[in-house]
Amino acid sequence: MRTLPMRTGVLASGRGSNLQMFIDLAQKGELPIELVAVGSDQAGAQALARARSAGIPVRVFTPADYPSPHTREESLLTWLQERQVELLLLAGYMRILGERFVQGADFPILNIHPSLLPAFPGLHAQRQALDYGVKVSGCTVHFVDEGLDSGPIIAQEAVPVLPQDTEETLSARILTVEHRLYPEAVRLLASGQLERSGRRVAERKSGSGH
After folding, report:
1. How far apart are CA 125 and CA 115, in angstroms?
2. 186: which residues sit within 8 A by CB, 6+ positions away?
3. Does 157 reside within a domain?
4. What would the mean pLDDT of 146-167 be, rounded to a whole number?
5. Is residue 208 in a domain?
6. Is 17 annotated as a binding residue?
7. What InterPro entries does UniProt report for this protein, alphabetically (predicted)?
8. Which of 49, 66, 159, 163 is deepest in the core (most CB within 10 A)?
9. Hey, which residues are catalytic here?
10. Residue 95 marked as a ligand binder
11. How confident is the model at residue 4, as a pLDDT?
12. 111 marked as binding residue
């Protein structure tokens, strides 16, 4: 089991409500992580203001400042490695990380998605759920791989879809669950109880015959 907090970076594009949740839990000593880097593709993202208020180093990687997505991601990856990041959390980051970035990262990358994957990957998952007429939605914490919301699933929780739901009301109820589910998944990984395959260490040991 790990004893030192895991050096953690966060990427966010918007309000940063999940980021603030991680900041609060880390400051209270309720999550074994140390937030050491917050990056964004949006200079005006509220997440950056939250990070600065907490004394966390920030950097903006605006697409217009780079000749290609590849060079932007190279710069992002180099910065995270310089910050000695051991875990990267996506918290409302609205860009797909490229194959080279994912393969080049020497740390696990986690994301939380507002649907019960593999249903409704990509953008506007709540709107997709309402358009499809499902009765149950939810959220999923998963490892990021080279595909679109296709990495190994760590945890899921269902949220009922109500007849009067709009995209906004469903999103708000799912977000409440995200704030509970995401830190639990991070706790498993940061404490050494979860492998990058998505399997818990205890499961591997129990099935090893030893």
Report:
1. 6
2. 8, 22, 31, 33, 87, 89, 110
3. yes
4. 96
5. no
6. yes
7. Formyl_transf_N, Formyl_transf_N_sf, GART, GART_AS
8. 159
9. 113
10. yes
11. 83
12. yes
